[in-house]
Amino acid sequence: MLLSRLAHVSQEVAAASARSRKVALLGELFRAAEADDVPIVIPYLAGRLPQGRLGIGWKLLDQGIAPAARPTLTVRDVDARLNRIGAVAGTGSQAERRRLVGELLAAATEEEQRFLFGLLTGEVRQGALDAHAVEGLAEATGAAPADVRRAVMLAGSLQTVAQALLADGPAALERFRLTVGRPVLPMLAQTASSVSEAVGKLGACAVEEKLDGIRVQVHRDGDDVRVYTRTLDDITDRLPELTSAALELSGERFILDGEVIALDEDGRPRSFQEIAGRVGSRVDVATAAAAVPVSPVFFDALSVDGRDLLDLPFADRHAELARLVPEPMRVRRTLVAGAEDPGDAAAAEDFLAKTLERGHEGVVLKALQAPYGAGRRGASWLKVKPVHTLDLVVLAAEWGHGRRTGRLSNLHLGARTPDGSFAMLGKTFKGMTDKMLAWQTERLEELAVEEHRWGVTVRPELVVEIAYDGLQRSTRYPAGVTLRFARVVRYREDKRPEEADTVETLLAAHPKVAP
Known about the structure:
Helix content is 37%, strand content 23%. The chain is an alpha+beta fold and 515 residues long. It folds into 3 domains: 3-171, DNA ligase, ATP-dependent, N-terminal domain (DNA ligase i, domain 1, Orthogonal Bundle); 188-384, 2-Layer Sandwich (D-amino Acid Aminotransferase, Chain A, domain 1), CATH 3.30.470; 388-509, CATH 2.40.50.140. Strands 11, 12, 13, 14, 15, 16 and 19 form a 7-stranded antiparallel beta sheet that branches. A 5-stranded mixed beta sheet has the order 1-10-9-2-8, with helices on one face. Strands 4-3-5-6-7 form a 5-stranded antiparallel beta sheet. It has helices at 3-15, 19-32, 38-45, 58-61, 75-87, 93-106, 110-120, 130-141, 145-155, 158-168, 195-202, 240-248, 272-280, 285-291, 314-324, 342-357, 434-447, 503-509; strands spanning 188-191, 205-210, 214-221, 224-229, 253-261, 295-304, 307-308, 333-336, 362-367, 377-384, 388-399, 408-416, 422-428, 448-451, 455-458, 463-468, 470-473, 481-484, 487-491.
């Protein structure tokens, strides 16, 4: 498949507001694709690279290279070129990477260049999410959407299912079954603004601690234990504690869902970054385990004794979990009957308060009758956690791509420092309406002091209220920290930049993460 076809469809999907139109466009694209194109096409549509991060930023892309007159690049050709760029290392590697990026851009048309800029800088935002792709794939192959969704859930990969479907048709879906040793995508939670709102939506539900750890799926088949992350990476060798814990359980064959956390000397949870660092450690695991010991906390059972539990109500799945896993290894929880019982609502609020006191980040409310919707952010799991906000100053903004082409989208955010300057804390393009994008583009162009191919640097005058989920250490930013999941709440034209929050205030609010 030519990259130009994919780039054009990406742009059309971005411009389409109706879900049915997005699905139709994707269906046409998949009908035109070959099975071997799919492992590249699907990640590209979602704004991801199969290679992961390649470190290709605006400095490498901003070469002013004239576009090609006609399209010749295929998606597989682009993938091969990016593999070569990713493999460059050693002396002279920066110059060689620049040369290879230049060759790629020279082979791309103007529309393809725009698409590649967005893809390589993480700014492809055309709404072609997996849910749309699943329906488009079903439309292209004549398979039932529900069957495709379940196959993707069990395969843990939309690309794998798409490849099989395009090669062998709907009958290929029968080969995807829940199997111990093969991870499935985890069920995810939507956000609710309060416990009372969540209880009102769910009715009878469990209220569980929301742990700020690493999601894990633990598979045991006899003496063989495998541990997978939410992205289905096998991390078994990095977490020997989880293998030991799984082998202590009475069952011989199961799949459990949970989190891995680490506690400090006072029994309170250590920061997410410490846990992430431990889970990411591949060298000298024994030393890492001694420095940051971790333990599993389970909250669901997907398979026990070879029985597929996915379609059972959550109450039944938890009963199987309780039979298999001792209480200290299960997440804390309380049950509520629903919004009609004021006492239960108060109990849920009290459970949230005590969870926060214990140092956890919030709660997840789970409908007792809901099946396990693997890979889906379903309405039967609702998370509630306090939202942190900061008033920060916009330091720069990057041009958007897809439906945001021509708009300044990705904001560079700064907090005040003692000397009166601003330290960048990160970027965000989230939380913006079309109306806000139009307004901020006009306003930031007025404040621009320097124009770049990627965007503009602006006078630090515009204050914006930012919501974020937490803080983590980062050597990329001058304060040594960056915001987690930052998104725009509103602009604060009533505030002067001197009234923006300071780096000191931020670090004081998150002492565990402070450098």
